[in-house]
Amino acid sequence: MVEREGANLRPPGVRAQSCFWRMKAPKRRQACFGKDAGGCLRSACDQEIRRVDLSHRAVINRRHQTPEARMPTVLLKFRKPQIHCIRVVALLFSLVTGAAANARGAKVMAEPIPDAIWAYMQQRSWRAELPCPGRDQLVLLRVPYLDFDGNSQTGSLIVAKSVAKAVAAAFQEIYDSGKFRIYRMSLIDEFGGDDARSMAANNTSAFNCRTTDRGAMSRHAYGMAVDINPVQNPYREGNLTEPEAGRAYDEPYKRRRDIVGMIVDGDVVTRAFARQGWRWGGHWKRSVDYQHFSNDGH
Ligand SMILES: [Zn+2]
User: Fold this and answer.
1) Of the residues 12, 89, 98, 172, which has the maximum number of CB atoms within 10 A of its CB?
2) Are residue 79 and residue 48 in the same domain, yes or no?
3) Any idea which of 55-69, 214-228, 252-266 has the lowest mean pLDDT?
4) For residue 235, how far is its CA from the centre of ligand 1 (angstroms)?
5) pLDDT, tens only, 209-223
6) Structure pTM?
7) What is the distance in A from the centroid of ligand 1 to the CA of 225?
8) C-alpha count within 13 angstroms, C-beta hemisphere, residue 169
9) What is the β-pairing status of strands 109-111 and 138-146?
10) Is the residue at 2 inside a domain?
11) In a domain, 224, yes or no
């Protein structure tokens, strides 16, 4: 027997509410889920709601829940202060790791270092035992960039306030050109302030209050140097190449303009920094540091 929509769909044992059950199913749903549900239709509607599929029911139920009730189960385990705490951590995480940018047309933004970031920097990129610049001498840049898949992202860089304009202008020019890709741009604090770990992760970074291998204060210690895509643009001195993965790119004959993330003389990256008076480590003589740009050439 072919089942018709209408009265004969009435569930067994339900007291007839004839006007309701004579309606076709779509009309019944409209009556139940629309504003006119209620009154004498209520019990019939309750039966009808049980008939709709689970996902549809879930949608209907969610409309009547409080925002907190709509949260995923895992979040329901936390009470309000903990939820606030999660939001703060999420903000910190997005600042440290970089989050998706809105779209092309995004601008580099500068802001004072937020409390949470400053606390996170202690004994990571900011070391009490070194003459590091004060918090008010540094700024946080939120930098739009294209990742290796060509997607817009927003990275985080900490630089000296005195060079923030120049660094922002260079990265803005790079982003606006659409011609250069950056693998990752997280604060080096995510790697415990460890330059080797940051380089191995192909992370682009700036401020890190540290000394060089020779014991002098690095230009990074003042927030006046930037390292970009260390794997494709390694540091090379004699037999030493850092990071290790950079060995594939550490000789002039291995360096080609068409390799994603690679900086070559005369490209948009070297031109953008040169325009700000910054110099490139790719021009050094005794050693070469393809990832490195600084305001004084060191
Ligand atoms: Zn560097």
Assistant:
1) 98
2) no
3) 55-69
4) 9
5) 999 988 999 999 999
6) 0.68
7) 6
8) 12
9) antiparallel
10) no
11) yes
Distance (Å, whole) CA 103 – CA 148: 16
C-alpha 234 – ligand 1 centre gap (Å): 10
Residue 156 domain-assigned (yes or no): yes
User: What's the domain count of the chain?
Assistant: 3
Compute, in angstroms, the gap from residue 105 CA to the centroid of ligand 1.
28
Distance from residue 213's CA to the centre of ligand 1 (Å): 12
CA–CA distances in Å: residue 35 to residues 30, 59, 71, 123: 9, 16, 26, 60
Reading the block at residue 168, the tokens are 């922002």
Looking at the fold, whether 243 and 280 belong to one and the same domain comes out as yes
How far is ligand 1, taken at its centre, from the CA of residue 211, in Å?
11
CA-to-CA separations, 55 to 34, 49, 263, 297, in angstroms, rounded: 18, 12, 51, 62
Asked if 205 contacts 186 with a C-beta cutoff of 8 angstroms, the reply is: yes
* 90 pLDDT tier (thresholds 50, 70, 90): low
pLDDT at 63 over 90: no
Q: ∠291-292-298 over CA atoms, to 5°?
A: 155
